[in-house]
Input
Amino acid sequence: MQTSLIELPSIRDDGSGYNYLFKLAANIIADPHRHFNFNFKKCAILDQNAIAMLGGLARYVDSHNTIANSGLSGIILQKCGVMFQVESMSQIISELLIENNFLSHFSKENFDGYPEGDYIGYRQHMEYLDANAIASHLNHQWLSDEKISISPDLKNAIVSRIFEIFMNAYGHGVERCKTPGLGVISCGRYYKKESKLKLTVVDFGCGIIENIKAHLKSDIDDIAATRWALETGNSTKTDSMYEHIPRGLGFGLLAEFVSLNKGDLSVFSNSCCAKVSENGNYDVSRMKTPFSGTMVNIAINCDGRHYKFISDSAGTEQYF
Amino acid sequence: MIKIFAKEIVGENAISMQSGKNLYERLFKPLMSGEEIEVDFNGVELFASPFFNASIGFLLKDIEVSALQKKLKLTNLSTVGHQLLNHVISNAIKYYEKEAKSEEAMKIIIKNVEES
Output
């Protein structure tokens, strides 16, 4: 069994943090049939994007090695996997990963995790979308009144938009994932000082661009495919329960919300990255390292100053 | 006027396409036969676009928005729900216009093929 030692640096929610994460993901996805030891000696900061990706990669490796070892005998013998070396962590990092429930998923130690509890942190969502379970989790546990003091309208708007991110992950990602059982991974963090909520949602599905190309039956340019996916009204109908139902609002709603809220939204999928600009449009560019899946990051201001509930401010006609 | 309590059909969360379709099925026939309907959203907390796409949005396939405004009354719908619904209606109108145009284009292509 081959073993790789990965010495994690500090990983922030910024450009260099994302570059590091996508390189790491590319290396692991290229060869998951080995054992990975993650050492945290050089890691002083881990933002929510890093935690979500690390959890997702661990599941990816586990899933590949479980499939690889389940063989003809039907016996699952998992020899490879991921080890997060807790003893190499600083006190700050280990407390962070215990409090946000990450370590309870990956360590044999008893870290008193919260498999169902009310915390803002690391979550592994099941393979099939249970809309009510996710909504209830977001509304009553994740953003409970005890943890975040926000107006009911803003809270409903946040939950509604975050739900769109999950819908997208289940549409573009999980349902068309080559590796079964991975589901959707999320990690959220509330920065009390700044009243800012940050959330990363990651899946290892075929990605937005691959989905668009398959749907359009066209080998269009990657940037054009990403722009097509983000345009209001366009949809690959991955949720296709019924024909002729209008769709394709999720990314448009997210961009409008983030723009009004003065927050941030980035979507990384396949070879492209899309970010919401100040005017509420998506700027699409190529990524240095492609990602075989989709990662969505959202930062939301929770102080209520930056969100207007006047619909006509967004130029939408009032039908009702 | 028929009164429908949305919470009895969708629960607290009006988010999924399935629950939207359930509401659509309660609305479609009476609206098509000219009845007026009030949908009371009291007790419904959360809204997401798939729900409105599959309910009110889907109605616009067969009913003009002006007719829908006359026949359908929505009460106790939250601010967030209202905003979202207006986005969905705006998108649905464009969606069905686009669909009608592509159907028209397809008819012309078929006609041309048959005539040639």
